[in-house]
Specification:
two-stranded antiparallel sheet, alpha+beta, 115 residues, Alpha-Beta Plaits, 3 helices
Length: 115
């Protein structure tokens, strides 16, 4: 079984919606990091303070085909192609340790259902 890491970076207010979309598409566990980003445009300044929106970085380890399915669902439902909606991407995993056996069994069952 081949795995991919799916990373979705969305504004903090879209975090719950993104997780729900991913779960509905078949994703299980997620690691959530919080941060700020610097875009192409200058940040807004309000009373001398620079406003920087908070972002959520969602990291999923998924079976390769499932990662693509989740990526497509996030792109469609969050409309990532629009400005300031977020970004999502995948990359392959060569070696993996520590994945939950229940998660692997879930991936195997989903693959069997596809066949």
């Amino acid at each position: 079984m081949k795995f991919s890491v799916l990373v979705a970076i969305v504004s903090e207010d879209l975090e719950d919606k993104a997780i729900e979309i991913a779960r509905n598409a078949g994703a299980g566990g997620v690691t959530i990091l919080h941060g700020t980003g610097i875009g192409l445009k200058e940040k807004k300044i309000f009373f001398g303070l620079t406003y920087e929106g908070r972002e959520s970085i969602l990291i999923f380890v998924l079976e390769r085909k499932l990662a693509l399915k989740v990526l497509k669902a996030l792109n469609k439902e969050l409309e990532l192609e629009k400005e300031d909606r977020g970004i999502a991407f995948t990359f392959p995993v060569e070696h993996l340790a520590g994945i939950n056996k229940e998660e692997v069994l879930k991936f195997q069952q989903e693959l069997k259902e596809e066949i």
